[in-house]
From TrEMBL:
Alphabetical list of Pfam families matching this protein: GHMP_kinases_C (PF08544), GHMP_kinases_N (PF00288)
Enzyme class name: transferase
Active site: 11, 141
Source organism of this protein record: Desmonostoc muscorum LEGE 12446
Job description of the protein: Catalyzes the phosphorylation of the position 2 hydroxy group of 4-diphosphocytidyl-2C-methyl-D-erythritol.
Record lineage: Bacteria, Bacillati, Cyanobacteriota, Cyanophyceae, Nostocales
Protein name per UniProt: 4-diphosphocytidyl-2-C-methyl-D-erythritol kinase
Family: Belongs to the GHMP kinase family. IspE subfamily.
EC nos: 2.7.1.148
GO biological process annotation, one example: isopentenyl diphosphate biosynthetic process, methylerythritol 4-phosphate pathway
Length: 317
């Protein structure tokens, strides 16, 4: 095989708690991450010369070495120089469907797909946990994107514990195309405003992170109870993003007042807001109502659902 087509799903955060500062300068987090049906499509081909090339259908996606997919390929060439010499370079095509800079891990899932694709192209036979370990060096969300489904992520977000899969909870996502929230800004502002409540002791950090495992939302996930999950959605970053971005706050309020919405929350550092539903029909209905309430063409709306997997191979030649 010299070409693989991969499906790279986005994620939402059902839960995001900032526990404290870590000695390495990152934040200690406790998150619950959920893969969703909205996905990018990534083709990975072997090419005869020793280069990495990236193409994308989306103007905001860089095609140089700042692209996380490019960085993933570069990492593989460094880690496996013999396979690189044997199989040659890699061409990566990104068909971007996931909104960019949206809090949906678009870049991270592309990087995860490239790790999986090159592992297959070069017949490396890496295990899922080896791929996740490589992914952790590229970004905190990459390991989750490899395996996907539903998981608790602690540490910087790279330490994963799988949870029972949540299938078919329906979702409406809303994002203003031209609105971007800088993730570093969101965490920095949170630290400035709320850092005095951080846990500082390393043992207490670990204890708090592990307490999340027995929290209410985890119990609701074990029961696959969409209504209870929706009542326990949480995202600390809303405390800084909602006051600074009135459009995000407005989306939250509109969703909260729609019939059929089980719960609504911002994903990651935003600006995407999501709402959860029992049925696809309810989700489609609310999408229409939100479109009527905000007739701004800059607003993108998607209906999708929870899925139980991360990167998947669609085809190979
Ligand atoms: P996360 O949820 O992991 O914080 P995000 O969904 O908020 O990520 P991305 O879509 O990954 O954000 O984009 C963040 C920035 O990364 C963009 O502004 C873009 O320029 C850059 N970028 C690099 N590689 C990619 C990629 N493969 N896809 C999208 N953006 C990329």
């Amino acid at each position: 095989m010299h070409s693989y087509s991969l499906i790279a799903p986005a994620k939402i955060n059902l839960y995001l708690e900032i526990i404290g500062d870590r000695p390495d300068g990152y934040h200690e987090l406790a998150m619950i991450l959920q893969s969703i049906g909205l996905a990018d499509y990534i083709d990975v081909h072997s090419i005869s010369n020793d280069t990495i090339r990236v193409h994308s259908n989306h103007p905001q996606v860089p095609t140089d070495n700042s692209n996380l997919a490019y960085k993933a390929a570069e990492l593989m060439t460094r880690q496996f120089p013999e396979a690189f010499a044997k199989y040659g370079g890699v061409e990566i095509s990104i068909n971007k469907q996931i909104p960019v800079a949206a809090g949906l891990a678009g870049g991270s899932t592309n990087a995860a797909a490239v790790l999986v694709g090159i592992d297959l192209l070069w017949k490396l036979g890496l295990t899922q946990s080896e791929l996740e370990e490589l992914g952790a060096t590229l970004g905190s969300d990459v390991p989750f994107c490899v395996s996907g489904g539903t998981a608790i992520a602690t540490g910087r977000g790279e330490q994963l514990s799988p949870l029972p899969s949540l299938d078919k909870i329906y979702i409406v996502l809303a994002k203003y195309r031209s609105l971007e929230v800088s993730t570093p800004w969101a965490y920095k502002t949170y630290r400035q405003e709320f850092g005095n409540s951080y846990i500082r002791d390393t043992n207490d950090l670990a204890a708090r992170a592990s307490a999340v495992h027995s929290g209410e939302i985890v119990k609701a996930i074990a029961l696959a109870d969409a209504g209870k999950i929706a009542q326990k959605l949480h995202n600390d970053l809303e405390r800084v993003v909602l006051p600074a971005y009135p459009q995000v706050l407005q989306l939250r309020e509109i969703f909260a007042n729609q019939e059929g919405v089980l719960g609504t929350m911002m994903s990651g550092s935003g600006p995407t807001v999501f709402a959860l539903f029992e049925s696809e029909q309810q989700a489609e209905q609310v999408k229409l109502h939100v479109r009527e309430a905000i007739s701004d063409e800059d607003l993108e709306l998607f209906v999708t659902r929870t899925i139980t997997h991360g990167i998947q191979v669609a085809s190979s030649i």
